[in-house]
Amino acid sequence: MCLLKVSNLKVVYPQTIAVRDVSFSLKKGEKLGLVGESGCGKSVLSLSLLNIILGNGKVVNGKIEFKGNNIFHLSKERLRQLRGRGLGYVFQEPQSAFDPVFTVGNQVAETLISHGIVKSKKEAKQLAVKYFDLVKIENPEFVYNSYPFQLSGGMAQRIYIALILMLNPEIVIADEPTTALDVITQKEILKLIKNIVEENNLSLIFITHNLLLLKNLVDRIIVMYAGTIMEDGDFNSVFNNPLHPYTEGLLKSITINKGKKQYLDTIPGNVPHRVVEEDKCPFADRCLKKVGICTKRYPELKEIEGRKVRCHLY
Ligand SMILES: Nc1ncnc2c1ncn2[C@@H]1O[C@H](COP(=O)(O)OP(=O)(O)OP(=O)(O)O)[C@@H](O)[C@H]1O
Question: Among its keywords, does the record have Acyltransferase (predicted)?
């Protein structure tokens, strides 16, 4: 069953096209990785799935359907339900998700009551303590009564994940959820997200600039560059046999040697700070395999053996 369908989405800011001609869909239980260098549009795309457009950005084309309903046409109330019970968003900075002046319990209870998950503060506490235990918080009652500043980054992220799960969303969106955490906590949080998503047959959209994090976590990967999709396919095929020269470059820049990450080549040049509409491939200036047409025409996203690639070489 298709849960989410994005068609020809375009989101612009006065200085740049943040998301350009993006189309993809997500099935129930599917785990999708969204990867690309900083500034390629991952966050703008994932926030727009909740109809959140920050600053003076504008959706100028396309639609996003959640279970067949265009989210840009939902009433305020249905949108509020979508953000939480439809799509649960785990942010990069776990501590900033909480208001410093209220206890964790207060904020959790308010969210659960406002989404209709529980009716009273007492019920909220019972449910929260159960879920805090599930995400391996020691002494959940004590944590429930704590203030956010009393939590470590890892604890705050676990609590936030527990809160998202209590809302019982159908899709979990995790935007670099482990960047602010140390390596050991990172691994624990990734394992936690994977287990919970699989045990409950939830769909996952995991956003990262680190392709290696996606190994053993997702079934499918979308590679983004300059606001658009360059490659879309099942993780193993893309990882073992990348079609797009950009994906190839990303993969060449990392390798695993006896479990240790080593950085090898980097892709020449930089990600464009400003994306404008041009009749050329956005990656042409950095591409080691470019041919004549690459600087003359914007490539379509083509389907090849169940995968998709935006490249004139195919
Ligand atoms: N509030 C905003 N105001 C102006 N421009 C913005 C805003 N948010 C994003 N942009 C622009 O949109 C483009 C895409 O940004 P986005 O944050 O989606 O990239 P990203 O891939 O998520 O990067 P990172 O990995 O660094 O978070 C960038 O050029 C960025 O400058």
Answer: no
